[in-house]
Amino acid sequence: MAAQTDVMVMVLAGGQGSRFWPLSRAALPKQFLSLGDSGESLIQATVRRVVPLVGQANIRIVANAQLEALIHKHVPGAKVICEPMAKNTAACIGLAAASALAEHPGSDPVLIVLPADHAIKDDQRLRSALDEAAQRARESDMLVTIGIPPTHPHTGYGYIKKGKPLNGRSYSVERFFEKPSLERAQKYLEQGGYCWNSGMFAWRASVILESFKSFLPPMAQGLAEIQAILKQGADGTPGNARIAEIFSNFEAISIDFGVLEHAKNCVVVDAEEFGWSDVGSWDQWAESFQRDAEGNLVKGDAVVIDSRGCVIRSANRLVAAVGLNDVIVIDAGDAVLVVSHEHVQDVRKVVEELKRRGRADLI
Amino acid sequence: MAAQTDVMVMVLAGGQGSRFWPLSRAALPKQFLSLGDSGESLIQATVRRVVPLVGQANIRIVANAQLEALIHKHVPGAKVICEPMAKNTAACIGLAAASALAEHPGSDPVLIVLPADHAIKDDQRLRSALDEAAQRARESDMLVTIGIPPTHPHTGYGYIKKGKPLNGRSYSVERFFEKPSLERAQKYLEQGGYCWNSGMFAWRASVILESFKSFLPPMAQGLAEIQAILKQGADGTPGNARIAEIFSNFEAISIDFGVLEHAKNCVVVDAEEFGWSDVGSWDQWAESFQRDAEGNLVKGDAVVIDSRGCVIRSANRLVAAVGLNDVIVIDAGDAVLVVSHEHVQDVRKVVEELKRRGRADLI
Prior knowledge:
Two copies of one chain form a homodimer.
Chain A: E1 7-12, H1 42-54, E2 59-64, H2 68-74, E3 79-83, H3 88-103, E4 110-115, H4 123-139, E5 143-148, E6 159-165, E7 170-177, H5 182-191, E8 194-204, H6 205-215, H7 217-231, H8 241-248, H9 255-260, E9 266-270, H10 282-287, E10 297-299, E11 302-305, E12 311-313, E13 318-322, E14 327-331, E15 335-340, H11 347-356
Parallel strand pairs in A: 1-2, 1-4, 2-3, 5-9, 10-12, 11-13, 12-14
Antiparallel strand pairs in A: 4-8, 5-8, 6-7, 6-8, 7-9, 14-15
Helix pairs in contact in A: 1-4, 3-6, 3-7, 6-7, 7-8
């Protein structure tokens, strides 16, 4: 177990999850949904899993200010780092690092970065992987990514090619790969030596900020100024006009595109399988449940007749499916989604169309 | 125009229409739904169309007693002949004939029999066809069916092969055919000389009851007794225990199977096309509307993306369809149906399953 004082967990909770419409909404993004059977929201589960690792006091939730009330409702007593606005993961992670250094002057904490909206089955194995990642980050100037051993040729995940072995289950990163075609994903699986990129990271605050200097210099400069303002005891980020001004000029880029794919000091922890899913879309959500003999998954009140490979989630009404193949039906109170399995990534197009129509009631 | 005094219209309104679930329910069968854009229910339209032909006073609505209140709500001032229970069309039509003769002793009215739940576009042409049918029925001891010129090889309708020409547009019936295969329906269309069986009939009360004597003798005997009871001034059918007892013993058989397919005195009026549909299922409902460029039909609040040949009817919520082909989505308040076009006849299986589960709230 890592010492608890020098490790902080930064939970990234600013996402929208528009592929989870109609359940996810602007005012209730995916990380606040209870997608399993437990009634626990994804963000609640994320926090619960790491409390034994670093203690409640060392957990921060990073999100844009509009979500602050919702975060406190889901995680009572949460310490929130407010982004003035959503600016993708690089700016979010940079703010978290600047904030940690301002809060602990003279120290250089290890930051474990976790998306708030992933599903994980084996908490113990997760903590073991995070612990190892934190150790690597503490003892070296490395950017550590948690890699997941692929179980099937998934086309929705990024892949990491492992390089030479380091301590424990850690390897240097030879290369990051974007979401592959099915053919390419199959090749990765056959060849071996690849991990899924979980989007969970560990690094020391100073190390990630140093990387920003190399690959996102304007953002690094802005973050240095934000850190100085925070160190002077500024009362949090959202109310500070200068921080908002700096932040608004940041490039909206992911940490992967903006930093990791260019950095030479990347390490991957080849974690033991711990039942991880990024729950990126409704079909991935369904993957975590057992199907019936016809390959259907039913949650809620439904009648299913002559149908195969369907996913049905009903809220307050009965859903009847007749003669369907590989169709997903998601019922929310005020909207119902019917989408073919192959088009499940296009659910975000519904949200775009609703935006275009000015349907604030439904997005 | 037929003389108004000797013609009565019998509207058969006892059906369930379970293929129109989730809109149709036991307490609100299909004939009480407003399926067009006008807001008028099917039964209201059925009555409205024949008022100019026979006058309101000569219209009777035949249905089981549970529907009486609903009938009066839809057709204020309606004269209702109550079946003690639903027993298919032969018993229903027999009761209507016995009732008409009891009401008009010494006369023998022509009865026009109309299903309450069909859609018709050209009222004028309908009345012209019914008028001709009534004339045939008045002047001969014939069982007259309204035939519809087929416009395409429909597999959901019965067919009638026309025999030798009689007066006007009337022909002797060579044979009735059940719902055909697509191949057979195509053959009928190519050969010509066939009509769709509309389920609309005309005959004199005495003539149909005479036919019952030949083909359904126990029912004929029971109907004679019911007629005698009604003639003695019995206060309607539902309250009379003896009528209920007789009726309960009737065979539940359709007029087509029970009488018409055996009778030698059948006539078909080869009517001018008047935009008729029996609206037997959701796909037939959709046939009466114009599709958009992608072959989709949308009624209500919906977003349709990358979909072809779909039918969407939403009630109080938004329906989003993504990547679907030939799927029908019907949203009611408490249930939503998603059915592939090929399985549209199986919607009744949903109702059967709900019955099995004791879901009185949804059937």
